[in-house]
Amino acid sequence: EPDVTIMSGLKDMVVFEGDDVTFRCQVSHENARDVEWKLQDVALQNNEMNEISVEKGKVHTLTLRKVTEQDIGTITFRVGPHTSMA
User: What mean pLDDT comes out for the span 42-57?
Assistant: First the structure.
């Protein structure tokens, strides 16, 4: 299986309380396995507040819905041994 690397990393975002925010990270290969999103070192799951998806096979996205002050912190995207933070 090829080593999947991060081609385009996360960007820092500033949003207002109650807004949605989307983070994107592009990887080198489609169908990457061993992918993880975290907020403040807490693994995120796909649910009504967090939408985790893949666009065009290589662009992994995380949308946080209706953010609050508790959502302030570091977002981490990890694929295999590679990470990107914002």
Answer: 95
CATH for 44 = 2.60.40.10
Residue type, 56: K
pTM of the model: 0.93
Closest CA to 67 of 22, 16, 11: 16
Q: What does pLDDT average to over the chain? A: 95
> What pLDDT, on a 0 to 100 scale, did the predictor assign at position 15?
94
Q: Which residues constitute the domain of residue 34?
A: 6-85
* 24 touches 73 (CB < 8 A): no
How many CB atoms are located within 10 Å of the residue 51 CB? 15
What is the total count of domains within the chain? Answer: 1
